Structure to design on (179 residues):
């Protein structure tokens, strides 16, 4: 039997490198990086006056996404990392924007690398609950459930995520109605 390292006609890059200690992807093609600052997180925290009074360039969280297939492809998965900085806006901890998946029944895994967090979940009836995040915790986010992560500790909260490549993200529902 002849084993090829990677078929010559392969359409997609299938190997990237993670720094598992840091919970980060090494920069490479197909890895998209985004930064969310306080200035960009309008109407996410309860106390808008307190948020506006803070330095708008303050980084709240950073996201990397490895998308080996085009966005919207059915049957594949994306892989991502998120680092939420420690901090507060008034009495609320720094947290991600949060979203439902556009295709509401698409699920996801979150895994904690480092730090102390709360995974906040909300179903379609707006019933809300949370799960503790700690190094090694692995979370299955069920269908039809919005998800957001808050850093409740003193060090950066580092997590990895895996979600279907046709899930999409609906941020509007959270911006309009909150969690
Ligand atoms: C994650 C999130 C990431 C940032 O990769 O996108 O943690 O959170 P927001 O997207 O809410 O800003 C994920 O849940 N993907 O589906
Ligand atoms: Zn998601």
């Amino acid at each position: 039997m002849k084993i090829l390292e990677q078929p010559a006609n392969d359409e997609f890059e299938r190997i990237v490198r993670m720094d598992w200690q840091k919970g980060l992807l090494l920069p490479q093609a197909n890895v998209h990086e985004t930064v969310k600052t306080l200035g960009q997180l309008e109407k996410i925290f309860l106390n808008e006056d307190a948020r506006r009074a803070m330095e708008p360039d303050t980084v709240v969280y950073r996201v990397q996404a490895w998308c080996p297939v085009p966005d919207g492809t059915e049957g594949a998965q994306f892989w991502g990392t998120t680092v939420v900085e420690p901090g507060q806006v008034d009495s609320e901890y720094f947290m991600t924007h949060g979203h439902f998946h556009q295709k509401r029944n698409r699920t996801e895994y979150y895994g904690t690398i480092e730090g102390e967090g709360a995974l906040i979940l909300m179903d379609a009836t707006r019933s809300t609950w949370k799960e503790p995040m700690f190094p090694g915790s692995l979370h299955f986010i069920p269908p039809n459930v919005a998800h957001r992560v808050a850093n409740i500790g003193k060090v950066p909260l580092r997590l990895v995520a895996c979600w279907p490549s046709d899930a999409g993200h609906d941020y509007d529902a959270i911006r309009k109605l909150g969690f």
Observations:
- The first strand starts at residue 18 and ends at 19.
